[in-house]
User: Fold Putative pyruvate, phosphate dikinase regulatory protein from Enterococcus viikkiensis.
Amino acid sequence: MNSEKQGELVTIFIISDSAGETASKLAQASMAQYPTVEFCLFRRTFIHSEELLLKALNDAKAENGMIIYTLIDPNLSKIAKEFCEHEDLFTMDLLNPVVHEISQRAHVEPTGERGALHHLNENYFKRIKAMEFAVKYDDGKDPRGFLEADVVLLGVSRTSKTPLSLYLANKNLKVANLPLIPQAHIPKQLFEIDPKKIVGLTNDPEVLIGIRKERMRAYGLNPETAYSDRDKIQAELKFANDLYQKLGCEVINVATLSIEETAAMIMSALDLEDHSYYFMEEEN
Assistant:
């Protein structure tokens, strides 16, 4: 976009023969680089016919939209490409160039199947089991889950333990978590597992105070309670950090991190792979 038109609305169309998640993530990552720009994002998904595609393309043309598409059907992909060239619209084919290159290197033709990424295969059901595991062993409901988990998350209240557990579960990792409260009983199982599977989550006191006050307001309660008291929070954080030191586990401060960033740091620190998209396992 021209720098002289900073106030102009930028419209992006996602066109896909499936759910459109791949293209949407690219669009959102790009949009995040321009916090002062106003965007309008349209999704045209499950496009399986020329009629539906042309309607989506003409809608994009009417809005002078940028077009990002994932269409595995060669005919539909060709129509989209030629339409955008003829109408001088920005377009990006996010799927076919990579698929074509894989074909050239592997000497195998693609299946051409729409939405293949979302197959209800063995990998998918492993991911569902991992999410069920995260729910079952959330908030220390059953300490025996620590012994089976790939990752054990520890942290005081409002350090994103549950969202992180579910996010990592979506990557086929079994995650259990335990809230830490001073003077509370620490399950013996925590000391029976490899500390390399444990991640201690911490936060800055000021950030935690703000989060907890907002939490109380959301419930319609007085934000000035022991839950958001500075001294109490500092005592909680000290208790947690002392435990982390005793366990010898990895420690991550989540104060300025998103769930995605924290999860990436956890997987890197624990040397874990994202198995959510694996279609083949190595043989021993």
